[in-house]
Design goal:
The complex is a heterodimer of chains A (513) and B (140). Chain A has 513 residues and is an alpha+beta fold. Chain A has three domains: 216 residues, Hypothetical protein af1432; 88 residues, no CATH class; 174 residues, Growth Hormone, Chain: A (Up-down Bundle). Helix content of chain A is 50%, strand content 8%. In chain A, the strands form four sheets. A four-stranded mixed β-sheet of chain A has the order 3-4-8-9. The radius of gyration of chain A is 24 Å and the shape is globular. Chain B is mainly alpha-helical. Chain B has six helices and two strands; from the N terminus they run ααβααβαα. In chain B, strands 1-2 form a two-stranded antiparallel ribbon. In chain B, helix 2 crosses helix 4, helix 2 crosses helix 5 and helix 3 packs antiparallel against helix 6. The model of chain B has no long low-confidence stretch (mean pLDDT 87). The chains are: A alpha+beta (513), B mainly alpha (140).
Chain lengths: 513, 140
Amino acid sequence: MDSEEAFARLKNEVDEWVASIMPDNHPKVPMPDKGKTKIIREAVLGYQVLQPHEYLVLDSPPLQRLRYIHQTALTYMVYPTANHTRFDHSLGCVRIAQQLGEKLIPGDKTRIAELRLAALLHDVGHTFFSHLSETIMQSRFNDIYTAVKRAPQFEGHELGLSQIISYLIVKNERFSNFLDRVVHYYPDFRTLDLNNVAQLIIGTPTDELAFMGDIITGPFDADKLDYLVRDCHFCGIRADVDVERVLVSVILLDRDRFPSSKPGWNKCYLVMLSAGESILEQVTFNRMLLYPAIYHHQKVRALECMIKAIFEIIWEDPDKIIDDRLKFQNIRDFYRLTDFEFLALAEKEPRLEPIVNKLMKRDLFKRCLVISRPYLKSQGNFMDLYKKNSEDYPEELRKIREIIWAELPRDKRGSIHDLWVDIPKVPTSIAEDPDHAWIDIGTKEMKVLSEFFPYAEWVTSYEINKWKGHVFSISDPSTRRVVNDVSKRVFKAKPYYLEFDEHATEECKIPSQ
Amino acid sequence: MEKLEKVHDSEEEEFTTFEDIFALALANSKYDHFKADSNEWHKVLYQVYKEYGDKMPQLGVIFFKERPPLPPQSKEFYQLITTLSMSGLITLPNPSYEFIVMEDAQKERARKLEGKRLAKYKNYIRRITELLDEQLAVQG
């Protein structure tokens, strides 16, 4: 599929979906008077004052559905208070984007309003279970995703499917007409450029406004500053980020500080004063700490495998799924449902009910083998396994699952959907961002954060000791023991030649007979 | 286990990634210490991509972000370093993390793993080794 065709197809799907949830004349209510602001109070960042056009956008159907999409998918099954949503997060981003805007371009109401609107809309393309379903979509519709990423509109950016869809929603004719009506109705915001808002969601509007891109999608953007604080807060993890300090220390780049001989230099980036450098270190380290604590927590990964299992069952034979909304034959179908709608519908499907029931009752998949560098007696060809991460190569991992499954004794074989090999992908952006974050230490030339500390190498060393993959199965102890035994034999054979020590099994805490 | 071996034999050549290519290119170098400087690596990665991105499909997945005045940046660089380190094929001696080291035993392992399945790219890989030697190897 070429990029033009993929773009047209995806755009068409987005257009159909927007048309299905939003009437052409939205909003039907009369426009509120100028200056009639609304105040929202939320748990993490406190009071928010929204302008009329902003709460009209917030009240639109594409935004309202974010109330029902959990920020960290099913993590609330592990951390009971992790019930925060993409809606809360979007509001948090608005506040941080505003604060960064006020610091950098004080008095520029138009640009600050663009930043606020872009922050409000940046996650509108998320669907149920947030990044989990995004990964599933990207993998299932990989031909479209791979091709659309190469479209001229997205050139130079590496975008996730949700980000691309956020952009397409904002550019959708019906939605952009609505934005035009509600934003430009108010004289104070008539100069607000909606193209800039759309561009900010995927990168940078112009070279001169590169700092605005940094605020929305940069190495230390409003998104990260909000989700780090928010995820820690709602998971009850004591790893905070001093956002206020970031705001105090951030400046706009003085272009004269870069040697003019450097080719291609015409951008205006966001820069951190040296006093704020340690806060960016804090952001980097906390991001890394959150992976083992939340995103790569073994129970979270087991839950994700259960959701992936549901999709495997659906796509194995879609004709046997009664409710059309659960067939997910195209990307648009993902946008029809929210978290609870998906679970509620899936629970009614005979083929899905057993696994959904287990998930709801928290009878989760359990560990049978822990795959970790320190637990390897012989590292054999570890790379061949490690590089087949669950996010990018689910089909490769499925082959390994099939082999383990086929080696199980018949009475323990059950369903292939109950057996998972999970290889979490290492988040490379944690190491990458410090290479993109400018620090002003008062010398002739700017430095990047990674010159202060070897982040990439540090992250690597950290991952060597902390990263864990797993083999999961149903919770029955005798099944887990057998899966443990067979998995070890499979990984010991060609092509992996891996030998595990006793910790790889002990950590699974499989009850003895 | 026979099944596993058969599956793998048939796919041995299919499932290779850009990490495999760089593992072999490093293993074929006469040097064992390489600079760990990310900007230097990005430059080499970009050059390799420009020269061989359309000849070796494994390199086609590498994506570069423009952020002048820095050289084009790729997150695949970080993935490469992590993957090779996790696999024990390179080491990053701390606390300075100044060098990427591939010792003889690691080179031998990499050659054993990758030599056969990347055989058809040997001429390209030889050139990548030359680039690594010229721009990243620490001599002496």
